[in-house]
Each structure stands twice: as C-alpha cells, then as structure tokens.
Design a protein that fits this description.
- Keywords: Lipid degradation, Lipid metabolism.
- One of its GO terms (biological process) is lipid catabolic process.
- The chain is of the alpha/beta class and 582 residues long.
- The protein is 44% helix and 10% strand.
- The protein has 20 helices and 11 strands.
- The longest helix has 23 residues.
- The chain is globular and about 80 Å long.
Amino acid sequence: MCTLHFPVQMQSDIRTALHVAFSSIGSLSPFRRSTLTLPPRCLRPAASLGLLSRPFSTSASLPDKPSICTADELHYVSLPNSHWRLALWRYHPPPQATPRNHPLLLLSGVGTNAIGYDLSPESSFARYMSGQGFDTWILEVRGAGLSVQGSNFKEIKESANAVSEQMEAVAKGVTNGMSPVQQPNNVSDTLSDSEISHFGQDSIGIATAWDESKLVSKLTEILMRLSERLSGFLSDGQSRLISAKLFDQISNLLEGSELSDRLEEVRANLSNLLEKQQNSGITSQIRDLSQRLVNIIEEGQRSVSPQFIDMQERLSSTIEDFQKQLDLIVKYDWDFDHYLEEDVPAAMEYIRAHTKPKDGKLLAVGHSMGGILLYAKLARCGFEGREPELKAVVTLASSLDYTSSSSTLKLLLPLADPAQALNVPVVPLGAMLAAAYPLSSRPPYVLAWLNNLISAEDMMHPELLKKLVLNNFCTIPAKLLLQLTSAFRERGLCDRSGKFFFKDHLHKSNVPVLAIAGDQDLICPPEAVEETVKLLPRNLVTYKIFGEHQGPHYAHYDLVGGRLAVEQVYPCIIQFLSQHDD
C-alpha cells in the first residue's frame, strides 16, 4: 500500500484552476451579477402537516416517480419543526437473496445526492447490497438531490419532478456542447425571483425614478431581517458584521463628501438598534433612521457634484443586491449539526418503522461526510450514554481529523473566516463541476487533473464519471463548510458551539466499525482515515486500504463506483456486514 503526498505546488495549481472554473460560471461576489444556476426553488413554508408516511411511488414503473430516481421506491420523511421533506431511495432485495436481519442505510458525502451509490445497473453499490439481501435505503439530506420543501403531497411531487428535470437538463446541455449555466426555460421557471436576479443574466429592473417611500421600506425591511432573522447565523456577532458590509457599500457612495459625517451618525445609531431585542418601538426607530439615511442620499442627489449623478439608482442597486445575499443566507441556513441531530435520526426512525428489525437497529455505510456523520453519531451517543441503534458501521474515505494529512479539502480553510462565509453564502459545487467538466474531459484538457480528485486513472468508465460529475453534486451552504473546516484544526471536528469535539468521545463507542481508505484519495488520504481509526476500541475496528503500489489505485469515489469496486471493495463490506447482521 502506498501513501500519497500532495505537494504545495499542486495546491497552488488547484487554486488557479478553481479560479478558472469560477470564472466560467461568473463571480460569486454578492454585489456582482453572475450566471450560476442554483437548485430549483424550494416551495414556500406552510404549516407542517406531518404527512408523507407512505412511499412517493410503490415501484419504478409508476409514472409519477421522478425519472432521475432509479430506486424501487422513493419515500419522503418529514422533519419535526421543519418544512423539509427528506428523500429516501429504497432498493428491495430479490426473493432469492439471503434473508437479512437488519436494513441498511447509506449516507452520501457533502454536497452530493443518491446517484453516487447508483450510477448504473452495472455500477450500483445500492443494487449490489440489495442483491445480497439487504433492504437498502439511501438518504438525501436537506438541500441534496430530491429532498425538497413543501406542505402537501402534490407540492412535494411537483417540486421533486422539477429537480429531476433540471438535473437531466444540465447533463443533456453539457453533452450537446451547451454551457451548463444556459438552462432551458422550464428550468429557470423553477427558480425564485431573487435567485434569477442574483444569479441570472436578466436582473430585476431598477426604477429610474426616485421612489423614496419604496426605498425606505426596502431598506427598513433589510435592517429588520438582519435584527430578527439573521441574529443566529454563524454566531451572535454575525448580524453586526453583515450589516456593516451594507453600510460600507452605502458609505462608498458618499465617500469624500460633506455628507459622510451625517451618514456615520445614522450608521452608528442603526448598528446599536440591530443589537437590541425586537419590539414595536425599535421597529419604528429603525424605520425613522432608514428615512434619514435615504434623505441624506437624496440631498446628495440634488447636489451639482458629478459624484452624486444617478445616486438613487446606485443606492437602489446596492440594496437590491444585498437583499439577494440575505435571501441566500436564510434559504441555505443549515450546518453539519442539522444533519446529525435532525436528518439522520428522522431517516433512521422512518426506516425502522417500515422494516421492523427485531432489535431496532440498522446497519449503515457512509461515504466521505456520510462516514463523518456516523463517527459523530457514535461519539455523541457514547458521550451521552445512549444506544446509537446501529448494529455495525462501514465508513468509506472518512475522518474526524484531517490535520495530519495533505487533503485537498484544506482549500476550504479560507471559509473558516465568517466574513468570507458571508461574502459567499453558498458554494454551487454542482454548477462549478459542470462548468469545469468540458475543460477536464476534452482537449486541451486544461483541468484534466480535477478528475483525479474523483477517480484514479482508468478506474471509472468515462460515461459513469460524466454522470457522476454532472448529476451527483449540489449547492453547499457556507455555514455547513464553516463547521466542517473545524476538522482541519486542533482536536478535529466540533459541533456548532465549538465546545464538543467528536474525536474526544469516539473511544466510548460499542459499535463495530470497518474503516476503508483509498491509496490515492487526495480528498481523504489514508493518513486522515488512520487518525480517526486509532481512536476507536481496537477490538471493534477493522481498517483496510485498497490499492496497490503498481496499481490499481483508488481515489475518493472509486471505493463506491470504481470499476474494480464490485470485485474488491463490495465483497469486503458484505463479509463485515454479514458477520454482524447475524
């Protein structure tokens, strides 16, 4: 087995190439227009009805199951106190398969959906496991794949079909040589007005006439949202940080003028109000100060100085752009703890209710972040003295601590700065990879090395790699990445409070674990996997690296969808799960 080191020069090359990829899809600056396409609009919140206790469809042949879903059934799970409906892809064992005692839950990596586990009939981890007798379920966490928001069955169905159509349109567009950001009309129709204007080429028109009352109302609304809805974003001080960004933009419009001092006075008063608890009196004060701010701009507009030409339009544009950034922050407002504390438990409870294992336990396999979720669950339950309700766990390319490795994920470390997370509230991973795909798969192969982050040379059929790149990745909240970057700091991954470090409690687990690494995995190298493996009780952990010095080699996704996985990796997993299922 070989250990692969990631040179500093290649890290520099990656940054350069990512810049190229970003350039091909537009800037992510909240105050610039770009042409990114985000996932279809989530339906507006409505009263949670606790519905969807039945499968979305009962077989793959029924016409109402989205065409992108290749499972036997598609189920939806309601989350308590949330409008999210999580998608569960189910694969039934054939009648002739060996009967099993426990269902199997599959968890995917960050920003990915169920397709990675079911690329094709010949390369399907999920189908293979069900063929071995395991009732297999793939969870798509909130924001991934066919998981959507909605209040009734009809809305869920319509939204899921819209997601499916968009995913297929992206793949078809790239195949036909069309830019991945040039979407058909029926796809753009599914986006919210805010997203179209922020990420599309056609922006919302800014009125040329000075509409003072409208502008005051819009500015007041933004400031109220900063105080009311965003106070819990990232940490207690972030609403002040993001409001400061807005004020900076407005201040730039008046820079060097005699009105600057008056603006600073209003700014200071508004900042103080944003930190206070909301009540009707404060609401009135915020509106009054918004009016004063607009009045200052209006006075500058009446000035003969060229500096104030089109001042109202520039202020309106600044406020509109800032509004869109707030919309993204609110829409993509979840982190790793939401997955751990809400999504995974809800899915496990649902699966237990439908499969009824005698001991109430599940088997679980997690790839990348999916494995990190399983490690975190074992650690949390060990700390609290609770039963994790897992019979055995398999992790593929996962770790709680990347500090000792040369993982390419260290490129995410700049997002550890909350200010950067606010500058870029989401990372459209799917759009980025789709934009970069032509440069990595066609001459002159400028970004060909990007493929090596996913699959080692000759380990995945080109068509399957293409499907994986174009259909498997989603948009990631910066808030989620912000928490995951703690895995690159001392003591490893921690919860959102920054006080609970999962690796400190992993030794308390009583669940058998098979940890698997790929010898050429640049995202989660073997040394990162080993860093977590050594924390588990020795009698409960089995560790294996796949790949040979002379080849074949395994990169990040080869453990799941590589051409040799069905011969080398899958049987190893089956042997481990079968042993503990019995």
